[in-house]
Design brief:
Layout (H helix, E strand, L loop, with lengths): L2 H35 L5 H5 L2 E2 L4 E2 L2 H32 L4 H13 L4 H15 L6 H26 L2 H9 L4 H30 L2 H6 L19 H10 L4 H37 L1
Antiparallel strand pairs: 1-2
Helix pairs in contact: 1-11, 3-6, 3-8, 4-6, 5-6, 6-8, 7-8, 8-11, 10-11
């Protein structure tokens, strides 16, 4: 066995080891949350309002609020991110300024979420006077997810072979027709991958909604975009840091964390299914 084969086997073994370590930690988190949170799960827990100082009842308003914020954020970030990525990849002239814009987008993706929360509070809550509301929270979370979606869509568009575009042009297609009917369908699996990652991040963020959308307790479901709302990440934070019944609140917090995890997994599984369907159509 020569040196090259030995190095290849060592590299492959290290990759397998990294995968096993990742799966171990993922399984540990799932096991830990399942053991601590499963006793709290019940139909009443999923469909009722919290009561008795957050020691009884359920998390229905928090589930609804998380769903509203996640959907609202994606309605903001996905069209903007898709349009920006299409322009940068298909229309913009190549040069220093475009590279600078792409570098800025990548740097923006690394900004801490609490900074986005302060930005959302200053701009949407105060300046535009939306107040603590679903609208302000969705806009803030949408901006938070925007850099990641732009980067993911750009990579997906770049991965589409240029021969696809040339074939469309040869058949008389315009640039917009080529993008809409050839490039975007071929890039859809990669775009959905970016959406999956963004949904996971949005649904679990606490700092941005802490300043813009979340309330500690509400006896009603949100009535409009300008209503404040409960949300699972902030509800978990509040249960673990406030209150006078830590034992009971801890059980509910773990149950809420498990529900949040299952909600993200469900949304991600749905997006993965749509991605695989797109791949089978265009593959």
């Amino acid at each position: 066995m020569n040196t090259k084969m030995i190095i290849e086997k060592i590299g492959f073994a290290l990759l397998v080891l990294c995968i096993l370590i990742t799966l171990f930690f993922l399984g540990s988190i799932l096991y830990f949350l399942s053991i601590r949170g499963f006793p709290a799960l019940s139909w009443e827990f999923l469909t009722s309002f919290p009561r008795s100082g957050m020691t009884k009842g359920g998390i229905a308003p928090a589930i609804v609020g998380t769903f509203y914020l996640t959907v609202g954020a994606m309605m903001v970030s996905l069209p903007l991110g898709l349009a920006c990525a299409v322009y940068l990849c298909e229309y913009s002239p190549k040069g220093v300024w475009v590279n600078l814009i792409r570098l800025s987008i990548n740097n923006l993706a690394g900004v801490p979420s609490v900074v986005f929360g302060l930005f959302g509070m200053s701009v949407f809550v105060k300046f535009f006077d939306f107040g603590i509301s679903i609208l302000a929270g969705s806009l803030t979370l949408g901006i938070l997810a925007l850099p990641g979606i732009i980067s993911a869509v750009q990579e997906a568009l770049i991965a589409v072979p240029y021969s696809f575009r040339e074939a469309s042009y040869a058949l008389g297609g315009t640039q917009w027709t080529t993008i809409r009917k050839v490039v975007l369908p071929a890039a859809m699996p990669g775009i959905l991958t970016g959406v999956i990652l963004s949904i996971g991040r949005i649904a679990g963020e606490t700092a941005p909604i802490l300043f813009t959308a979340a309330t500690f307790y509400s006896r009603f479901y949100p009535k409009s975009l300008f209503s404040e709302t409960m949300a699972l990440p902030y509800h978990i934070y509040a249960l673990m840091t406030e209150g006078t019944h830590p034992r009971e609140q801890t059980v509910i917090a773990y149950g809420a964390a498990l529900v949040l995890l299952l909600l993200v997994l469900f949304i991600s599984a749905l997006a993965i299914y749509l991605r695989q369907k797109q791949r089978s159509i265009h593959g």
